[in-house]
Amino acid sequence: MTDHGFTTTFTVDRTPMEAFDAVIDARGWWSEEIDGPTDQPGAEFTYHYEDVHRCRIQVTEAVPGRKVSWLVVDNYFDFTEDKTEWIGTTISFDISDEDGKTEVRLTHQGLVPAYECFEVCSTAWDFYAGSLRSLITTGEGQPNGRGRPRLPLEEAAAGQGR
């Protein structure tokens, strides 16, 4: 984590292109409830989890094998006073070759400790980074979605809003 956002990094024994392909498959690691393209600069997609969290995200960068960036255009949490947290923040995935392995750095620029959602969101990003790592290495992530039981972090977020 930095003063300007949340960051987590992991390394895998896969190619940068395999990591990139997994990142842009956000339905495979983040949520099955994503509508729209997650890999085309200028395109927008929506994410939603029950009535707990919704957001609209614009793809700002997709450089195969190197980087993916998303800008949060609109956001809503049911568990925060400020329903606009995340708006204007950037979620990026920097992918690099490190001595024959691939490093993936997920940064949510603007997700800062002053945000009411910070604890839940940073815990969630840690979980979803693990889900992304799993998708890259095994072909199976752990996205939230239709018909799946709630993850503990989702349960915690849902409980805060009620």
UniProtKB/TrEMBL annotation:
Residue intervals passing through the bilayer: none
CDD domains: SRPBCC_CalC_Aha1-like
Chain residue ranges for the region called Disordered: 138-162
SUPFAM superfamilies, per database record: Bet v1-like (SSF55961)
Pfam families documented for this protein: AHSA1
Residue ranges annotated for the Activator of Hsp90 ATPase homologue 1/2-like C-terminal domain, each copy included: 16-135
Gene3D superfamilies: 3.30.530.20
Family from the record: Belongs to the AHA1 family.
Protein name, as recorded: SRPBCC domain-containing protein
